[in-house]
Amino acid sequence: MKGEKVLDKKLHEWTYNFGTQKYMRLPSHEVKIGDCALGGNQPVRIQSMTTTDTLDIQKTVEQSLRMVNAGCELVRITAPSLKHAEALKDIKKKLQSQGCFVPIIADIHFTPRAAEIAARLIEKVRINPGNYADRKAFQQVEYSDQEYQDEICRIHDRFSPLVKICKEYGTAMRIGTNHGSLSDRIMSRYGDTPKGMVESALEFVRICEDHGFDKIVLSMKASNTQVMVQAYRLLVKSLLQQGKIYPIHLGVTEAGDGVDGRLKSTVGIGTLLAEGIGDTVRVSLTEEPEFELPVARYIVDSFTSPFDDKGDQFLLKDIPTIQTRFKNPFFFKRRNSKKTLGLGGGKIPLILSKHEKADIQVTDSFGDKVLCVFKIENVSDFYPVYEKIVTMVRENDDRPVVLDVRPLKVREDRNLEKREQWQMTLAASLGGLLLDGFVDALWVNPLEEDIEDAMSLLQAARLRTVKTEYISCPSCGRTLFDLQKTTERVRSKTNHLKQLKIAVMGCIVNGPGEMADADYGYVGAGPGKITLYRKHNVVKKNIPFENAVDELVNLIKDDGEWVDPV
Fold first, then answer.
1. What pLDDT is stored for residue 369 in this prediction?
2. Best CA proximity match to 437, nearest among 380, 389, 499
3. Residues 456 and 515 reside in one and the same domain
């Protein structure tokens, strides 16, 4: 077909220029989701997810309308049971009666029958290959090749009914892998790795293709930004090898709230958008869903419509791509630099400033001859600086790299506060450079808040730990308590424990898996009940909600991880 030949030509050109001076967005296969087209030449779409109980139809409709008014182009709603799936029909009807025809996505975990009901009612279903027809019980199971293939056949039989329904009704499907919910089977063969994430999704893609179904969207979400970027890159490599690129949904899952959630989301999503990867974006914040959308829009616009110094838009075709200009894009490794003036030599990236709270107090002429200092004035500087650092690597230039962000210009957005704009512009400008291990120091203005934000950015990129890290889900209809208030309660008691990662998860369905690499987990177990975890192990079950935060503190104390706040 003519359309397929055009796509093949674009794919060939993108592959040929993969890592050269010419920029080209990854040409994905276009998928129609209701009246919204995704992939191909379509703009990057932004979406979010409701936090209401899906059975409360009126509240779900009202929240959906607020999301759409804030710029949401696709609305996702959880459907954990058959009743919840059936409620989607009335939600859709009420939305349309108010003139809102936004495509609805049913979010499915563990309940294939709910997915099969929803696929007949709405425009798209999202399934998680880690728990749709598989399981996660944190058990190591050894499979022979034949036993493994038998499991694939079992999944084929369990998953095929949904594929056939989607094909019959024209319903799209997202196959969404989550780092924290890989099945025991995948973990046993591939480990807790980006490769395991990719293979988990591709097993389901192959079943779809067996049935001639291609209205597929793919995602590789993780709360760890390094793992997230590596997994998406590996997914793209695998899709390139097979010659069919499905639209890609970008997101950092369980990013948290406030500055941390925004920085983590911008680092992960922005790095991939800069490489031409991504057709739709969801920013997962532990906040009201309408607050996610201006953040998502700011990230997308930073790369799809950046501004030059005169305030004019310039085309991305004028920007060099950086997709494979590093030695191995699928594993993290810091660039080797020579220890100079206290920088480099394997040390964590440091903060330079005239301010007394900086790691190193410096003047305007610090290390000009023995350091390689790059000035970053706007997001578009990311591309040429990346190319220059790659040249340094090739030429064995081992000077420490310093990114001077003191002249960084912030693109104003009336939907975001000024400091919020600064934080996200900083992350968008530096994310890829940090995640690929090229940076030895950030040079910032002598303002305490700028130093704090730069420190937080380094933590978002997993390069150093400066404060307690909170992994918290954005809430949904499965959540069993007020997630925002509870996260704040946990934070108020533990935010001085800088060495720990603490997860606050809304439900027992996904909590244990989605916590991924947290040290401690606070998970909703039922109405008014909380279960506490150490790593992935249950420590205390069904604790009354009013006592749970204190019990978490006691657990940390019992483990010898507690220090009194200063």
1. 86
2. 389
3. no
Q: Do 380 and 309 share a structural domain?
A: yes
Residue 103, number of CB atoms within 10 A of its CB: 21
**Residues 198-219 pLDDT 10s:** 999 999 999 999 999 999 999 9
Measured distance CA(50)–CA(61) in Å, rounded: 9
Lookup: tokens for 195? 């490769």
Q: How far apart are CA 522 and CA 489, in angstroms?
A: 12
Count of beta carbons in the 10 Å neighbourhood of residue 408: 21
Within the chain, how many helices (H) and strands (E) appear? 16, 20
The CA distance from 189 to 173, in Å, is 26
Which position has the higher pLDDT, 524 or 50?
50
Please provide the distance, in angstroms rounded to a whole number, between the alpha carbons at the two ends of the chain: 69
**Are the C-beta atoms of 170 and 144 separated by less than 8 Å?**
no
Give the Cα separation of 504 and 75 in Å (integer): 24
Q: Is the pLDDT of residue 453 over 50?
A: yes
The mean pLDDT value for 69-83 works out to 95
Check: pTM over 0.85? Answer yes or no. Answer: yes
Residues 6+ away with beta carbon under 8 Å from 117: 79, 82, 85, 86
The count of C-alpha atoms lying within 13 angstroms of the C-alpha of 57, restricted to the half-sphere facing its C-beta, is: 13
Q: Which residues contact 547 (CB under 8 A, 6 or more apart)?
A: none
Q: What angle do CA 498, 499, 505 make, to 5 degrees?
A: 85
List the one residue out of 317, 237, 247 whose CA is nearest residue 42: 247
Instruction: Reduce the DSSP state of residue 332 to 3 states and report it.
Output: coil
Distant-in-sequence, close-in-space partners of 530: CB < 8 Å, separation ≥ 6: 481, 522, 523, 524, 542, 543, 544, 545, 548, 551
Q: Cβ(323)–Cβ(329) under 8 Å? A: yes
Band of residue 402 on the pLDDT scale cut at 50, 70, 90? very high
Helix (H) or strand (E) holding 83: helix 82-97
Classify residue 157 by burial, with Cβ atoms within 10 Å: 0-12, 13-18, 19+.
exposed
Residues 6 or more apart whose Cβ sits within 8 Å of residue 186: 130, 134, 196, 199, 200
Counting the structural domains of the chain, the total is: 3
The dihedral over CA atoms of 124, 130, 133, 134, expressed in degrees to the nearest 10, equals: 180
Residue 283 carries which side chain, given as an amino acid letter? V
Across the chain, mean pLDDT equals: 86
Q: Are residues 549 and 432 in the same domain?
A: no
Residue 488 sits in the same domain as residue 353: no
| Residue partners of 351: CB distance under 8 A and separation at least 6 | 358, 359, 360, 441, 442, 444, 451, 454, 455, 458
* pLDDT at residue 161, rounded to an integer: 97
Question: φ and ψ at 310, to 5 degrees?
Answer: -90, 0
Decide if 5 is inside a domain.
Answer: no
pLDDT for residue 19 is more than 80 = no
Which domain does 373 fall in, by range?
305-464
382 HSE (CA, 13 A, CB side)? 30
What single DSSP character describes residue 408? Answer: P
The answer to whether residues 532 and 544 touch, using CB atoms and an 8 Å cutoff, is no
